[in-house]
Design brief:
The complex is a heterodimer of chains A (about 220) and B (about 300). Chain A is of the alpha/beta class and about 220 residues long. Chain A has seven helices and ten strands. In chain A, strand 4 and strand 5 form a beta hairpin. By secondary structure, chain B is an alpha+beta fold. Helices cover about 75% and strands about 10% of the residues of chain B. A four-stranded antiparallel β-sheet of chain B has the order 2-3-1-4. The model of chain B has no long low-confidence stretch (mean pLDDT about 90). Classes of the chains: A alpha/beta (about 220), B alpha+beta (about 300).
Chain lengths: ~220, ~300
């Protein structure tokens, strides 16, 4: 469960990207964060995933107040989230398999077990046959699926994505939507920031609409 | 514990792979570190060899004790007892008759000695003290001078003091040089690690976002710095061994011309290990400083 109260993020220079946002996302829900460009979707995703620190307000995830946590505790909290970015943030100095292995290495899993789980995640997104390929050799849709495999390999309780279909063609976007829906069906909380209306038409998720940083 | 161990092992392997990934850069860095460690380490060994040379030089650190001309055998025995009690080191007794014979043996002295009405030489002791520190030698000289029936005690303390002052000056210069080159080594590692952090910026950013701790991110860089320093230290040891091997023959020949059997001392295994350990420590220190500063921008 994610509960935000009066969450505000003010950047140096005075820009308030998120203003007094209060909302609640129950475990297992699929929630879309929508709004026009510059509405604060990406900032809200970064706040929920603890990449950004709020200027004020509180954010409670699974009963833990993230705004009160010490810096050293944040990495352990982040391991409960699976993050997918519009630009994927894949590492091009290693294979697809080694990209997916990274969260498991961070978690300290024994190598053999980590490889087994990484291959299972690649299989889930249909990329097992390309495990040895460098991400640069993958198509845009495949890269996004690889990013999803990396996000889910650690079995997160919350899958958070920022415009995951933003750079994809319609067919690839549908594949990605279906993958998110699959994870939602098995109980994973899915939070997606997007302006893609297809999500709403296909899955009728809960919607959190932002306008100039405010929840409306 | 198993997780901690496996993560350290993985970081060590990663650091090693990063060293191998750019062999030319690694080689150049190792050369800089190796040379930076070679100069003070070679200086240390040179001073140590010089100290040995000073110790081994015959007559340099001896105390000559001359008895009164009328000293009896009982007096000589008393001095022997006192030397033994003082654990003064090694000594040998030179009876006055033996001293006269030696004098006679010298060219042109036989006639002069024969013309003497009586033996003018006293009984003497030649003491080679255990402790050759100038202060200790001076204390011993004063103590012996106060013993009964001792007419004169001779110590070439000025030479010893000059030699010791030279060694102390050398040691001080060496420490300054070591400090300077140590700082150089830290700076080299600092820069190498800064470049490493820049090269792995994407990986660091992603790792942070998906839950990597500071330790997980920093560890490979620490190992990289320590490994680089360790290998630089071993390279320095290799350079020193090679230089000493080259010098051994001409130094031996020079020493033989002065009637000495002096041989250059090679660094012991412990000293090589210390050199590698010091290199590893300085490398780790440079990495620590660099990573702390470089990773701030990821916060």
């Amino acid at each position: 469960m994610i509960e935000a109260s009066n969450l505000t993020k003010r950047y140096p220079g005075g820009l308030e990207a998120v203003k007094d946002a209060s909302f609640r996302i129950d475990a297992g829900q699929m929630v879309l964060i929508t709004g026009h460009s510059g509405a604060g979707k990406t900032t809200l995703v970064k706040l929920i995933s603890t990449i950004e620190k709020p200027t004020s307000g509180s954010l409670v995830v699974n009963g833990q107040n993230l705004t009160a946590l010490r810096r050293s505790a944040l990495p352990h909290v982040r391991r409960h989230f699976g993050l997918v970015f519009q630009d994927q943030k894949l590492l091009f100095d290693r294979s697809a398999l080694h990209n997916v292995l990274l969260p498991l290495q961070i978690a300290g899993l024994p190598h053999r077990e980590a490889v087994r789980r990484a291959q299972a995640a690649l299989d889930k997104v249909g990329l097992l046959a390309r495990e040895k390929a460098n991400p640069i050799a993958l198509s845009g849709g495949e890269q996004q699926r690889l990013a999803i495999a990396r996000a889910v390999v650690n079995r997160p309780t919350v899958l958070i994505a920022d415009e995951p279909t933003g750079n994809l063609d319609a067919e690839s976007a549908t594949e990605i939507l279906d993958l998110f829906a699959d994870f939602h069906r098995v109980g994973v909380t899915v939070v997606v920031a997007t302006h893609d209306q297809t999500w709403i038409e296909r899955y009728h998720p809960n919607v959190l609409r932002l306008d100039h940083g405010r929840v409306v | 514990m198993a997780v901690w161990f496996s993560q350290h092992r993985a970081a060590l392997v990663l650091a090693f792979l990063r060293l191998l990934a750019s062999p030319l850069n690694t080689l150049l860095s190792l050369l800089v570190i190796g040379i930076a460690l070679t100069l003070p380490a070679f200086g240390y060994l040179a001073l140590d060899n010089l100290r040995d040379l000073g110790r081994n030089a015959t007559g340099v650190q001896q105390i000559s004790l001359f008895m009164n001309l009328d000293a009896s055998k009982k007096d000589v025995a008393e001095i022997e007892n006192r030397l033994r009690a003082a654990a003064a080191g090694q000594w040998r007794f030179v009876p006055r008759d033996e001293a006269l014979k030696r004098m006679q043996a010298n060219e042109g002295m036989a006639e002069i000695v024969a013309s003497l009405p009586r033996n003018p030489l006293p009984d003497a002791f030649i003491v080679e003290p255990k402790n050759t520190e100038p202060e200790a030698l001076e204390i011993m000289r004063k103590e012996i001078a106060g013993w009964p029936r001792v007419a004169h005690v001779q110590l070439d303390s000025a030479w010893v003091k000059r030699f010791d002052a030279f060694l102390r000056l050398g040691k001080l210069a060496l420490w300054m040089l070591a400090g300077l080159f140590g700082a150089g080594l830290v700076a080299v590692t600092f820069n190498t690690i800064r470049l490493q952090v820049m090269a792995h910026a994407a990986e660091i950013e992603v790792a942070r976002m998906i839950g990597a701790t500071d330790g997980f991110i920093r560890r490979p860089f620490y190992y990289f710095g320590a490994l680089q320093g360790l290998l630089g230290g071993l390279l320095a040891a290799g350079l020193i061994l090679a230089a000493l091997r080259l010098l051994a023959t001409p130094v031996g020949e020079l020493a033989a011309l002065y009637g000495s059997t002096f041989v250059l001392r090679q660094p012991a295994l412990g000293e090589i290990a210390a050199m590698a350990g010091l290199g590893a420590f300085l490398g780790w220190l440079g990495a620590q400083l660099s990573v702390s500063l470089s990773l701030r921008k990821f916060d």
